[in-house]
# Entry
Amino acid sequence: MKNLTLKDIATALNISVTTVSKALKNYPDVSAKTKERVKAYAKKVNFTPNAHAAFLRTQESKLIGVVIPRLNHFFFSNVLRGIMKAAEEKDYMVIVLSSDETYELEKKQINRLLQQNVDGILLSIADSTHDTKHIDAIIEQKVPLIFFDKYSKLSNCSSIVINDQKAAFNAVEHLIKQGKKNIAHLRGPFLPQNSIDRFLGYRKALEHYGLAYKKEWVFTCNQISNEEGYAYTQEIIKKHPEIDAIFAVADMPAVGAIKCLNEHNIAIPDQIAVMGFSNWRISNLVTPTLSTVNQPGIEMGEKAFQMFYREYQLMKKNETVIFEKIEVDTEIIIRQST
# Structure
C-alpha cells in the first residue's frame, strides 16, 4: 500500500490540502469540527506525515544533530538529557553520534549529519581534533553550530562552556587550603581547550599561593582513563614521595589514583589528597569518596539547544546572528578524598 499524502486526505474529505495541513497542526483558523474530522480520518487510515516531503516544502527537517566524544560518559549523558528535554519542547528529533575521541570519525559523523539535512549541529570536539576544516564546512553551509564543553577557538560560532581555568583554580585552591603544598597534576592531552585550561588553572593556583610548579609533577593522560591514573600514581609513589596531593583533569584518572593509593596503604587524604573533575557517579561510590568539580551537564544541554533554536530562527528571517559564549557555573563537591 502506498504512503498516503495530505492530498489523498484532502480528496477523501473534499477539502483543500492547506486545510488538512492546518487541521493536523491545530491552526486556530480551522474550525474545531474540521480539525476533529481530519484527525479522525488520519487516524483511521494510519496516516503518518512524510518528513522528507515536509522538508521539501519548508526547508526545515526538525532534526538536530549531536556529536559527543564518548557515549559511556556520565557528564555527556547528562548533557544529552538536557538537549533532549529542550528539543522535545520544540518538537525536534535528536540524532546522537559519537566521535569516540577520534578526528577522522568526527569528520565522518558531521558529514553524515549534513547529508541528513539537520537544522543544526551541537558538537563537543574530540581530543584528537587538530584541524577545523570539517567544522568550518558546517558554518559555510549556513547550518547553525553550537559548541558545548570542548570547543575550538578557531571556529566562529557560539558555545556553551564552563570556565575551566577558574574551576581548576578553585579545585587546587581547595587542596592548598587543606594544607597541601606539593600538588601533582594528571592533565589531559594537549589538543582540547578544556584540557589546556584546566592545566593553566592548576598553574595559576600554585603561582597565586607561592607554591612550586615542577614539570616532573605533571603527567599526561592521553586516554583520560583510570588505568593511566593508577600507573602515574605508582610513579608518584616511587619517584616523588614529597607529593601530598593529586589534581586530576577528570574523575577517571582520580579513581585510578585512589585505587593505587589504597593498594599501597597510603592514607587518603592525610598523606595524599585526591581531587577529580566532572562529578561522575563513580566519584561517590569509591572509597574514600572523591572530591570533584561538578559540571552542570543537564543545564548545559538545555542551553545548547536553546542557543541553536534562537540562531536558527534568526537565520530563517535573514536577520543578523551575533555569536556568544555562555559560561555556566561549577561548584566544588567536597568529599572524603580531600
